[in-house]
Amino acid sequence: MIKRTASEALEALAKQFKAVAVVGPRQSGKTTLVRSLFKDKAYTNLENPDTRNFALEDPRGFLAMYPDGAILDEVLKVPSLFSYLQQILDESDQCGLFILTGSSNFLIQEGISQSLAGRVGYLFLMPLSFQEIGVSDSASNQIMLEGGYPSLHKENAIDHSLFYENYIRTYVERDVRMIKGIQDLYTFERFIRLCAGRTGQLLNMSTLSVETGVDVKTIGAWLGVLETAFIIFRLQPFHKNYNKRIVKSPKLYFVDTGLACALLGIRTVDQIALHPFRGALFENMVIAEIRKQYLNRGWSPKLYFWRNNTGNEIDVILETTQGDIPIEIKSGKTITSDFSKGIKYWQKLQSTQSGYIIYDGDEIQRRTNGITYYPISSTYKILEEFLK
């Protein structure tokens, strides 16, 4: 079994909160993680129809079966349990009594905000990070194509094409649509594929509306569905006013590039190597990795991008206690002078001498201009320096 980096944060939360909610995409390894860390706890899966019916019909009787607490897997299937859990947690002095998992951030947050606020610690578990997979710097195309879902990185792994075909059908088209009761399957699927074609781009809901054939309000609602279901995330523009002429729209990214590739019809390493979206997918992969570094520590990501209306931009700004850290992402393997243009502009704007470039090469280079170049396998080293 792959050791998850988030294990330490989860154990710490279980020592401080009476319950812990582990949420993230379906198939990201939530059940495996909680069962491996809390082996002494009873386990029940509320996706099982008989278990779910019992919990729905007699929630008090269901919870009474677990006086010492339990792992309640996919608890969002029975949201009424949150109200009954409140009393149990209030009457208990034990931390880590219940471990809750779920694949929809919206439904779990709704239940917690109504009944369990202040009683529950949160951990977001994303697909595997570069460190967990054991990424080599020569395998970027393979990692972009396969993504980070644990099922694709174990012995006798599922073929990635079959995995994502099933994932799209059973999760994106069924479970996600159920959150908002989406009825038009064909249009919704077209919308998701159009989103994949906008990876790394500024979000323009009006254009999506025209191409999908639904109104802007519906596009906004559907984006919310994909976000709360851990399919996409939005990277917001940097909010400090270093230049009044900054872009204000967020950028769109996928939680996992393997799913984005599948939606784009990319099936092989040879296809991705020559694909016009390779640069955008590489950027998506690295930004998703940086985001995981925060989430695996149990922290909220403080990530932004910066762009002004004359085309100057920085792919990622880390907001840290040590200042605002610029990071550029380049999909090329050979360092050129063009790689550092954005960082140099930022250095002049802020009067600083630091910056990082993550590229598709294989060595760390520290330049006298204050810019450090990292291969993708060393992405975490940037964060270790600033996320202590």
List keywords for this structure.
388 residues, alpha/beta, Rossmann fold, 13 strands, 44% helix, globular
Descriptive account of the structure:
With 388 residues, this protein is α/β, with parallel strands linked by helices. It folds into three domains: 7-124, 3-Layer(aba) Sandwich (Rossmann fold); 130-233 and 240-289, no CATH class; 303-386, no CATH class. Helices cover 44% and strands 16% of the residues. The protein is built from 17 helices and 13 strands. The chain has helices at residues 7-14, 30-37, 49-57, 59-64, 81-91, 105-116, 130-133, 140-146, 160-180, 185-196, 205-212, 216-228, 257-264, 269-274, 278-295, 341-350, 379-386; strands at residues 19-23, 42-45, 70-73, 98-102, 120-124, 232-235, 251-254, 303-307, 313-320, 323-330, 355-359, 365-366, 371-375. A six-stranded mixed β-sheet has the order 8-9-10-11-13-12, sandwiched between helices. A five-stranded parallel β-sheet has the order 2-3-4-1-5, with helices on both faces. The chain has a two-stranded antiparallel ribbon with strand order 6-7. The longest helix is centred in the middle third of the chain and has 21 residues, at 160-180. The two termini are 27 Å apart. 43% of the residues are buried.
